[in-house]
Design a protein that fits this description.
The structure is a single chain. With 566 residues, the chain is of the alpha/beta class. It folds into three domains: 81 residues, Arginyl tRNA synthetase N-terminal domain (Gyrase A, domain 2, 2-Layer Sandwich), CATH 3.30.1360; 187 residues, HUPs (Rossmann fold, 3-Layer(aba) Sandwich), CATH 3.40.50; 178 residues, Isoleucyl-tRNA Synthetase, Domain 1, CATH 1.10.730.10. The protein contains 22 helices and twelve strands. It has a four-stranded parallel beta sheet with strand order 5-4-9-10. Strands 1-3-2 form a three-stranded antiparallel beta sheet. The protein has a three-stranded antiparallel beta sheet with strand order 6-7-8, covered by helices on one side. The two termini are 31 Å apart. The structure holds arginine. Arginine binds next to helix 12.
Length: 566
């Protein structure tokens, strides 16, 4: 468990000023400059109780408070009481606390609470493009973060497996379809069919009509239409799963839009029954303040993406009784979710305020070949293959002797793509630049993996040398400023995870891990770990081991594999 320095200082203060001054915890601040101490208390807060000039209070407290434990000294400066931490004590205690913990305490945060996360959610018959990558990795990471914090998580892949495009696909497949081509590469093949359908429909408008008819038949349960749709769907999902495996992301349910088909009638009834609907040119709508009305049912009786999302959220509430529901979907759908949540609120669902759209920006390619391809479609699988092969090249160059080259290259390549996606706040657009993503010394996944592997090999050497199964104690040696910096950061791990969770922002963890790796490398450069002195070596080894533990746990939360050897 992390050391709560503020709690310790508050306790010290209470002993000095007495209980009736109230808990000073909330008064303790981080001063803007280091020379004002590690922590400070503005003494205006005590002025009422002591009826004295805050300056006087500060100087009295400075002389009364007894240093000890984590507190090295106290000084007054004007109305402020500045507190200095004993860095040696802190470093040692933080490291020891970290050695013991399995981060169990944080699980209490989410005890008894459920979060439903809707992420990835690609559309069948359109390639799993780079755009869906973002939703997949942000959602996958959020799921791990919430689980780590003790929440029950329900991961849902709301695949786009329903809608008029399936009528078009069926019609196209019946006209031009090739069974073998479909089996061979279903997603790309279906995509090509879809593109071809649109191109030909420009010339032969009756195709459009035919597409609508096929969707109609599909909706009515026509066997031939259903059979084809089922095949398209299951072949596509099989392919998606291959990608998810590579990204190490999984789902509890693949309940796509089609899943809610049977619930649509009652959904429309429920919306109507709440008295908020109106008819508008034959369509059923909910007028909304400051935004376009929500279209619930079209004039021809068909329902919409929004209707299916209303059905889905009602189902999820009933089935999982969630405390929080997240939708990890790009920012262009902001209005859709605003409409969805507003409709729910107007239906009297108080829990609508616990539904959140978690938007993210776009991916921009620096790579010419990828950005100029016709239709701007990038197949994620190609991207991952390319990443792994570039990583393989780097391994051959840097360390050709490494075992498990194929797995290592895959972990580095895929990790690079994921980290590149998670390293900045999600709302920002991200650049896709191979050289930058695979830079061993940059702000990259591979930098973290490399640091992790470096620590691992250091620890192996240490264990061999001192014949110890693991590192147990920490002696009274000094770890220096660098060691303190490491300990200070490591001690923040849980707080950072909590922030990532409450802001739905995996980048908080990504940035934090970069700092940890940097601090470790600083420590390692300044202090030899294997020195010939057993106690010293083992104590420093323990600092390294704690860094390893936080790095590997943190990478896990980002769906990136920590590497043992590279
Ligand atoms: N399939 C949709 C798309 O690719 C995303 C679905 C997001 N989830 C939801 N419940 N609307 O645009």
């Amino acid at each position: 468990m992390a050391i709560d320095v503020k709690r310790f200082l508050a306790q010290k203060l209470l002993e000095t000023v007495g209980e009736d001054a109230g808990d000073p915890y909330g008064l303790i601040e981080r001063p803007p400059k280091e020379e004002f101490g590690d922590y400070a208390i503005p003494c205006f807060g005590f002025a009422k109780k002591f009826k004295k000039d805050p300056k006087l209070i500060a100087s009295d407290l400075a002389s009364q408070i007894t240093p000890g434990g984590l507190l090295a000294k106290a000084e007054s400066l004007g109305p402020y009481l500045n507190l200095y931490i004993d860095r040696k004590v802190f470093t040692k205690e933080a490291i020891l606390a970290l050695r013991r913990t399995g981060f169990e305490e944080i699980r209490a945060d989410g005890e008894g609470k459920t979060v439903v996360i809707d992420y990835s959610s690609p559309n069948i018959a359109k390639p799993f493009g780079i755009g869906h990558l973002r939703s997949t990795v942000i959602g996958g990471s959020l799921k791990r973060i919430f689980s780590f914090c003790g929440f029950k998580t329900v991961g849902i892949n709301h695949i786009g497996d329903w809608g008029t495009q399936f009528g078009k696909l069926i019609s196209a497949y019946r006209r031009w379809g090739d069974e073998r081509a479909l089996e061979h590469d279903p997603i790309r093949y279906l995509y090509d069919l879809y593109v071809r359908f649109h191109a030909e429909a420009e010339k032969t408008p009756q195709f459009e009509q035919e597409g609508r008819e096929w969707f109609n038949r599909l909706e009515k349960g026509d066997e031939e239409a259903r059979e084809l749709w089922r095949r398209f769907r299951s072949l596509s999902i099989e392919e998606f799963k291959r990608i998810y495996e590579r990204l190490d992301v999984s789902f509890d349910y693949y309940t796509g839009e089609s899943f809610y088909e049977d619930l649509l009638d009652e959904t429309v009834k429920a919306v109507k029954a709440s008295g908020i609907t109106q008819m508008s040119e034959g369509a059923l709508v909910v007028p909304l303040p400051d935004m376009p009305p929500a279209l619930i049912r079209k004039q021809d009786g068909s329902t919409l993406y929004l209707t299916r999302d209303i059905a889905a959220v009602l189902y999820r509430k009933k089935e999982y009784d969630f405390d929080v529901a997240l939708y990890v979907v790009g920012s262009p759908q902001a209005l859709h979710f605003k409409q969805l949540f507003t409709v729910l609120a107007r239906m009297g669902k108080g829990w609508a305020e616990r539904c959140h759209h978690v938007p993210f920006g776009q991916i921009r390619f620096a790579d010419e070949a990828m950005s100029t391809r016709k239709g701007n479609i990038v197949f994620l699988e190609e991207v991952l293959d390319r990443a792994a092969s570039l990583a393989r090249g780097i391994i051959e160059e840097k360390n050709p002797g490494v075992r498990n080259k194929v797995e290592t290259a895959e972990a580095i390549g895929v990790g690079a793509v994921i980290f590149n996606d998670l390293k900045n706040s999600r709302i920002k657009d991200i650049a896709f630049d191979w050289d930058e993503m695979l830079n061993f010394n940059g702000e990259t996944g591979v930098y973290l993996q490399y640091t992790h592997a470096r620590i691992k090999s250091l620890l192996l050497k240490l264990e061999k040398r001192y014949k110890i199964p693991g590192i147990e104690a920490v002696s009274d040696i000094s770890f220096g400023e660098e060691g303190y910096e490491v300990a200070r950061l490591l001690n923040e791990f849980e707080a950072q995870v909590r922030r990532a969770r409450s802001e739905f922002e995996p980048s908080v963890i990504a940035r934090y891990l970069l700092e940890v790796a940097k601090a470790f490398n600083g420590f390692y450069n300044a202090h030899r770990v294997i020195t010939g002195d057993r106690d010293e070596s083992l104590s420093r080894g323990l600092v390294a081991d704690c860094c390893r533990k936080v790095l590997s746990q943190g990478l896990e939360l980002l769906c990136i594999r920590a590497i043992e050897e590279m």
